[in-house]
């Protein structure tokens, strides 16, 4: 229990969700060897006892952040998981990135913030009818630009300062985000599969990062802790 928030992790539930399935033997990152329990059908099986221990540490850290009113940026750009990442982040009132990671989002935050402000102002102009005075052709161009801007900045449009931590649901795919966070001294909570360097994260969750069921399980636990700590 942290800050009166209960953390209930079950190895059986994790196994049912497929959290324990890693990648093929040939793709093992040497630093993940300590989290491997065995091999099945040429695929590494993650030690769920170790996952539970590491995940609990990550959840305790998340709980402490929420207790202090801090912000966690959710990052999950893999096609099959991005809708779940977005929904969870929104329900926790947290910013998110589920489309392509824009280089410089953290390391060049001031420039990105100007683009985000431009997007917010554009949205307001559209909503208040300020764009109605333009021709139909011009309004169509504005609409196209808004779609592009929304795609890039929707999840971070209320992010007025650098986040206190980033939660990356696939550390290998969004390695650029992890590297930027480390440069800025932002803590990284990362889901790490057997093919990934775990030292890129401050708090690691050794887990299957491909299966929707695995990511859903992890997100549900994270959501429980965040909403329980508020």
UniProtKB/TrEMBL annotation:
Identify the stretch annotated as signal peptide in this record: none
GO MF entries = structural constituent of ribosome
- Where does the source fall among the domains of life? Bacteria
Keywords attached to this Swiss-Prot or TrEMBL record, sorted alphabetically, are: Ribonucleoprotein, Ribosomal protein
Give GO cellular component annotations, separated by semicolons: cytosolic small ribosomal subunit
Gene Ontology biological-process annotations: translation
InterPro entries under this entry?
Ribosomal_uS2, Ribosomal_uS2_bac/mit/plastid, Ribosomal_uS2_flav_dom_sf
As for family, the record states: Belongs to the universal ribosomal protein uS2 family.
Q: Which NCBIfam families match?
A: rpsB_bact
* Protein name per the record: Small ribosomal subunit protein uS2
Q: Which gene encodes it?
A: rpsB
């Amino acid at each position: 229990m942290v800050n009166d928030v209960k953390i209930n992790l079950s190895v059986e539930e994790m196994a049912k969700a497929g959290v324990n399935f890693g990648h093929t033997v040939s793709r093992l990152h040497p630093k993940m060897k300590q989290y491997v329990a065995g091999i099945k059908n040429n695929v590494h099986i993650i030690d769920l006892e170790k996952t539970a221990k590491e995940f609990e540490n990550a959840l305790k850290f998340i709980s402490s952040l929420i207790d202090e009113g801090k912000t966690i940026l959710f990052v999950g750009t893999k096609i099959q998981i991005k809708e779940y990442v977005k929904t969870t982040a929104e329900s926790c009132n947290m910013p998110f990135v589920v489309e392509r990671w824009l280089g410089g989002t953290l390391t060049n935050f001031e420039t990105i913030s100007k683009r985000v402000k431009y997007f917010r102002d554009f949205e307001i102009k559209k909503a208040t009818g300020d764009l109605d005075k333009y021709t139909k052709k011009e309004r169509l161009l504005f609409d196209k630009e808004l779609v592009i801007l929304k795609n890039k900045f929707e999840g971070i449009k209320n992010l007025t300062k650098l986040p206190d931590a980033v939660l990356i649901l696939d550390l290998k795919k969004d390695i650029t985000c992890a590297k930027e966070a480390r440069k800025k001294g932002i803590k990284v909570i990362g889901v790490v599969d057997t093919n990934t360097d775990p030292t890129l994260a401050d708090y690691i969750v050794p887990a299957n990062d491909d299966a929707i069921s695995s990511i859903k399980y992890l997100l549900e636990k994270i959501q429980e802790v965040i909403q329980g700590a508020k």
